[in-house]
């Protein structure tokens, strides 16, 4: 199932030519959350001038009685999920190139295989408390932890046809410029495509009395103290991206506190929150970090989780 049409930019003018091998992938399962994610992905594809691919994972599983369904019935139901999503998104975005398909695999394996060299994967999220559901429960968390491309979690709105917010792109910066290269690249690319401003946030904590090395203390002293040291670290990380995207307005925000807490308290005016993650392997498999976990649960806006390192 596919539909092709000439593309236009977000401002109604001619769009950029799609980059070879690039697309945005949205996972759909028929839920309001996944349809909101597909709609968000369609707008982002228009901003970036790339095609949209809708994907639904399905694999034949015999169902227990009293529910009796044969393989063909389940297959038709899966095809109807993507057909309905494609029809709805095509109606909202008639000039966007869209393809849609059923992937015959488990949800995690199918979505991870599909994103390949995609710009990003977009999935639905219920958020605000316990994260549950087909696309952001155990499946979604596994996808985010293992994905090699950015994954954006979008929660359903009361009116999916409403215009998207016009706030900032909020991005969390941690560690060295090299540590945050991927997350800042994604944030600046997104802001440039949307004509949005960036608020870059660096949270810091007072070091344990015996944990700070003499070399670190010397660097902080050279910078004039701990706060100026953190401010300089943020400026240094932003410098190459400001040079590459001089037309993107940037606000620097350095605050004492945990990264998750600081990002959430500054996310009220954000249209997108961008955080990095390094997957950690626990007893039950790969897990995302605490900052990404807090953002996915509690942020009031879509959250992009970008793999680092």
TrEMBL record:
Residues of the UspA domain: 22-155, 169-307
Domain of life per record: Bacteria
Chain residue ranges for the region called Disordered: 1-28
Comp. bias intervals (Basic and acidic residues): 13-22
Similarity annotation: Belongs to the universal stress protein A family.
Protein's recorded name: Universal stress protein
Species whose genome carries this gene: Streptomyces roseolus
């Amino acid at each position: 199932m596919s539909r092709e049409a000439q593309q236009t930019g977000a401002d109604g003018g001619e769009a950029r030519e799609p980059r070879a091998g690039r697309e945005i992938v949205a996972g759909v399962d028929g839920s309001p959350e996944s349809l909101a994610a597909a709609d968000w992905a369609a707008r982002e594809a228009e901003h970036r001038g790339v095609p949209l691919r809708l994907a639904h994972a399905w694999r034949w599983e015999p169902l227990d009685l009293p529910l009796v369904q044969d393989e063909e019935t389940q297959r038709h139901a899966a095809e109807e999920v993507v057909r309905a999503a494609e029809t709805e998104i095509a109606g909202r975005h008639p000039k966007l190139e869209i393809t849609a398909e059923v992937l015959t695999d488990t949800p995690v394996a199918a979505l991870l295989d599909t994103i390949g060299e995609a710009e990003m994967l977009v999935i639905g999220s219920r958020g605000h408390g316990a994260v549950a559901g087909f696309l952001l429960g155990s499946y979604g968390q596994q996808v985010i932890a293992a994905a090699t491309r950015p994954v954006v979690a979008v929660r359903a709105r009361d009116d999916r046809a409403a215009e998207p917010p016009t706030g900032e792109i909020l991005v969390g910066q941690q560690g060295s410029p090299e540590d945050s290269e991927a997350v800042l690249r994604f944030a600046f690319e997104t802001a440039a495509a949307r004509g949005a401003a960036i608020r870059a946030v660096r949270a810091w904590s007072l070091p344990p009395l015996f944990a700070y090395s003499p070399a670190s203390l010397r660097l902080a002293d050279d910078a004039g103290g701990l706060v100026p040291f953190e401010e300089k670290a943020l400026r240094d990380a932003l410098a190459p991206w400001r040079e590459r995207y001089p037309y993107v307005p940037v606000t620097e925000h350095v605050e004492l506190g945990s990264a998750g807490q600081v990002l959430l308290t500054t996310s009220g005016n954000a249209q997108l929150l961008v955080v990095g993650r390094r997957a950690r392997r626990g007893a039950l498999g790969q897990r995302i970090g605490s900052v990404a976990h807090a953002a996915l649960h509690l942020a009031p806006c879509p959250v992009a989780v970008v793999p680092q390192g």
